[in-house]
Amino acid sequence: MARFVFFVGTLLAAAPAWSDWVVFVDGQRTEVRAVELTERAVNITTMAGKRWSVLRDAVDVEATRAANATPPLLEVITVIETPPVAPPPAPAELSAPPQLQTIVERELTLLPEADVVRPPAPSTRPYRFSIALNGVRGHDTLQFTDTNQFELFKEQAHIESVYSDPRPQGFELGVQYRFAGPFAVGATVQRFENDRSASYNASLPHPFVFERFRELSGTKSGLFHEEMAVHLDAVVTKTWGPVTLEGFGGPSWFQTKTEVLVDVLYDETFPYNEVVFQGVEGRVLETQPLGYNVGVSATFRVASIVGVDFGVRYSEARAKLAVDQGREIEIDAGGLAFGAGLRFLFP
Known about the structure:
Largest sheet: 8 strands, antiparallel, barrel
Distance between the termini: 74 Å
CATH class of the largest domain: Mainly Beta
Oligomer: single chain
């Protein structure tokens, strides 16, 4: 018997110190890693490390305390003398008993709203209002020609100017409101600003020799050009997980300010066979044409309220710049433009 008691003591010393017991009011009991009694609930850590919380009414508190107290040696011997029980599975394979899981789920539904820890809302929830801020780059270069003809020494003089722009760059700020399902309305303000250049070629009649023209040519750079557009769009959206595709279109209002060459300045001396270049005269002209726009965009949501936005838009309007009485220059406003930036999404 002494050897048997020594063997039992050895087993007790080798038993895991982190094993506890939970006894429920219906008499069921289960082994857990830790038990914490609070004023309203019982916090349980299972053998697999999962955390559960149940109301105190579901647990026999006194029996649980008694089960976790150190038992007398006689009770331990009695337990050891019972037929051996199969060893429990490895801690990694342990899971909450079905009856414990059922009680936990039932009791958690009875907890007050403040005591329930809810997961954060998924990042794919629909949004109703959005703000987009994108950098924009035009695809096409703007080119147009202006020809100025006037009478000089009883003949027709003319000055031809050819304007060319690099691909415009700018930004756009847009807002959108989704009012019903996939349907939304949006407004976007685009602004481009760049310097343009113009090459000119003047053909001036000779004051004494008929049909003898004096030529003058050159290039003028650094001419000012600014274009702002307001697009009002009807929008249709389609969402797949974190990706939202949009198609849009509507009217556009443009405000174009551009500098053009209105005259070439020169000087001449006898015998007037050549002219001496003195400079060019430029003037900033403004026009406000109406047009339209269509486009598509894609937004990839990377956080709860932040997405990366890519889009392409084509807009067009025909504009006329009034230089002098009876003299106009026709230019195209808008064009194909690509944009990329951030979109902020709000429920």
